Amino acid sequence: YLDGLEDILTSLDDSFVLSIQINRPKARNALRTNLLKELADTLDKATHDDMVRAVVLTGGAKVFAAGADITEMADKTPVDVMNDPRSGYWMAIRNFPKPMIGAVNGFCLGGGNELAMHCDVLLAGTNAQFGQPEINLGIIPGAGGTQRLTQMIGKSKAMRMVLSGQFMSAHEAEKAGLVAEVCEPELTIDKAMALAKTIATKPPVAARLAKESVLKASDAMLAQGIAFERRSFATLFATQDKAEGVSAFMEKRKPTFKGQ
Ligand code: HXC
């Protein structure tokens, strides 16, 4: 769909559905900056393309996305985070005005789960596992996760996930309202495509305004929380516990946190 993409695969069919697949299997689909940029650029083009009426976003069979690329985060300071072009790419994803269906199989973690929550409808395979494990790295979600998760599954379940880093199964995620439907993993993409194709037969302007209207139910409240979360996320990059969490992940050992 766009030339020269390295981290995502795209295809547009004649039913007005653009498929985007996250494709960095060696790094478990970690969302390095280039990947987010490619996603944002693709959605920017799709915004202005009448041949696109709906998008299906998917990952791999075992991993939707394992979150931000931890190796990229290792040396960042709070100022780096505040000036990070990633915020702009997230903004482009957040502002994409056409319906986007997420099809999740396997691990959907950290920034990966935050990306999934930017989709308008989520379908999941029975093998999907959702989590916000940032706390294990000495940080917190930084792309709206604390806000969207709380809104979608309620305070208690969101707190459990964000504070403990524990994962949630596909069935629990469906019960909690994070995903619309759970199916056999082989069917997730087909079902998402079918839904996207149905949506693509609807009047595009009405679909766009329907999406915008549904998001208005929460967006105004979210904005303040997202800004607060972002600042807290940046602040944590000054802590020794973040350095320890990231080093421990890269050295494949258990971290020891000291509250510094
Ligand atoms: C960079 C990663 C990665 C990540 C995995 N890899 N996740 N690299 N960033 N997020 C790399 C590993 O280092 C390893 O590299 C290779 O991918 C395979 O990983 P394994 O752990 O051996 O795979 P597996 O046993 O299959 O386990 C998969 C997994 C696990 C459960 C997804 O990799 C995992 O827990 N990953 C980290 C998840 C996480 O903490 N996410 C939150 C990130 S923070 P080598 O070189 O050894 O092959 C975040 C902040 C969001 O998202 C902020 C948004 C602004």
TrEMBL record:
Keywords: Isomerase, Lyase
GO molecular function terms noted in the UniProt entry: enoyl-CoA hydratase activity; isomerase activity
SUPFAM superfamilies with a match to the protein in the record: ClpP/crotonase
InterPro entries in the cross-refs: ClpP/crotonase-like_dom_sf, Enoyl-CoA_hyd/isom_CS, Enoyl-CoA_hydra/iso, Enoyl-CoA_hydra_C
Single Gene Ontology BP annotation: fatty acid beta-oxidation
Stored PROSITE patterns: ENOYL_COA_HYDRATASE (PS00166)
EC number: 4.2.1.17
Keyword Protein biosynthesis in record: no
Group of enzyme by EC: lyase
Family recorded in the similarity comment: Belongs to the enoyl-CoA hydratase/isomerase family.
Protein name per UniProt: Enoyl-CoA hydratase-isomerase
Organism: Candidatus Terasakiella magnetica
Underlying gene: paaF
